[in-house]
Design brief:
Blueprint: H1 21-26, H2 29-32, E1 43-47, E2 53-56, E3 66-69, H3 94-97, H4 99-109, H5 113-124, H6 144-149, H7 158-175, H8 180-189, H9 191-197, H10 204-222, H11 226-230
Antiparallel strand pairs: 1-2, 1-3
Helix pairs in contact: 4-7, 5-10, 7-8, 8-9, 8-10
Length: 233
């Protein structure tokens, strides 16, 4: 049950600092904070039956490990059999349809509600059926590997997707000490790329993504009507 006395998410400034280190550690983020000498190593991951996430820089013959981040900082793009589904829901109702779950997830993980909305807007335009060419799914476009890490069983389930995506934002915010731009960049390019480049990666897609999410984040903060804020300027 949502604790109504939980501190509200921050509503001013670009910082996302909230000391939820235990959550990050439980999900293995300490393993992702790689030693500088191994920053170019591939990262492999799998989630065991107990929900524990395991990482390694080599699979060691264990077939359960799957490539998560390539050594050059790019996510694996080999998505055989993926059928992309472009966002197609054009109803204005979609911008308010998931309000309760967005608020609950934002409060639970202490992420600004406006940031969650901005990511949903930029990722799927509020269409839970969307699938990207590389296989990212649902409202917050979770990659299969990320969904596993966030313990999301069905990425097309709107509630699960919102909670999983917001949980990932919390982990990124912890990892990058509350830096908003790095948190957004990590959501798009992966935390490995941000760590390797020591900042926003020099990828045109990621740089444009950070700008777009920041733009909608500001719109949601200044325009209380979420439908008006969600309509393309």
């Amino acid at each position: 049950m949502l604790n109504r006395e939980m501190p509200a998410p921050p509503t001013s400034g670009p910082s996302l600092r909230v000391p939820l280190r235990a959550l990050a550690a439980a999900l293995g983020l300490a393993v992702l904070a790689l030693h500088p000498g191994s920053a170019l190593a591939d990262i492999f991951t799998y989630t065991d039956a107990d929900g524990t996430v395991h990482f390694a820089n080599r699979p060691t013959g264990d077939a359960r490990f799957k490539l998560y981040i390539k050594g050059d900082g790019r996510r694996s793009s080999a998505r055989a059999g993926v059928t992309p589904v472009a966002p197609s829901d054009k109803s204005l109702e979609r911008f308010s349809r998931y309000d309760a779950w967005i608020r609950q997830a934002a409060a639970l993980y202490q992420i600004p509600e406006e940031l969650v909305r901005a990511v949903i807007k930029c990722e799927s335009d509020y269409d839970p059926r969307a699938v990207s060419p590389v296989g990212a799914r649902g409202l917050m476009q979770l990659m299969p590997e990320t969904a596993l890490r966030m313990q999301v069983r069905d990425a097309f389930d709107a509630r699960e997707n919102i909670f999983g995506g917001t949980r990932y934002l919390r982990i990124l915010a912890n990892l990058f000490n509350g830096d908003l731009d790095l948190t957004i960049a990590g959501y798009n390019a992966g935390e490995g790329a941000v760590m390797r480049h020591g900042g926003i990666p020099p990828y045109a897609e990621t740089q444009a993504y950070v700008t777009r999410v920041r733009t909608y984040y500001a719109r949601y903060r200044t325009t209380r009507d979420t439908t008006v804020a969600s309509i393309e300027p």
